[in-house]
Amino acid sequence: MDVSAAASELLDMRRTQRVEADLPADLRPADLTTAYAIQAELVAGLRGDPIGYKCACTSPIAQDALRIDRPLFGRLLSETTSVSGTTLDASKFVHRVIEAEFGFRVARDIEPLDGGHTIESIADHVDAVIPAIEIVDYRYQSWTIGALQVAADNAIHGWWVHGEPVLDWRDLDLADCRVIVRRDDEVVTTGSGAAVLGHPLTVMAWLANELPRFGRSLRAADVVTTGVTTDVFEAEAGDSIVAEFDGVGSVAVDFA
To answer: Tell me: the pLDDT tens digits for 159-173?
Structure first.
């Protein structure tokens, strides 16, 4: 198939906010390798520099919905990353799906490990935990269109908002950390780090093991967001969203 044509189609859907039921039949990836090749060309056509990765489908519910047995990854970009307290123009998005997520900052390059990385090995490569909100945005009529189309569209990443990095985190049980998301001071949903493959660092280990399959790896200073810890909901113009992470801090975003 024509990878460049598929990437151009996805770029045009993003730029025009055009919503489609699916990609044209001849532009649909048949496997993950092709989907990630499309993603790479799409990312190259977007504004901003890659600063790390987002992980998607790190919960059984999302994997079941997309009929996939593993998570997916996309790229985080400097142009669509903001610090906590930012105000975003709601009209920039087709959807504003709110996902409260644990983020991490990579301390040094991560090389493949015989037998694969584990929570313990990957923790030695992390220098900070970051409270974060990912805003998922998609232009398919349904985000459950299929795993390959989602992967090709940069895992339907919209924006990443992050709080202050926490350096003193090793005594925290991140799986047990409670997460509370409020909209205009009202609690909308709650969860914990256990929602993402049982532990956020399990997601980091998965990503460190998965990237080399596609010729990539995690590098020093990369940031990674590890998937939604609560139920999701869609924000609207005028909403103020705050996600609170026990022991880690909070992150806030407003939509104008």
So the answer is: 999 999 999 999 999
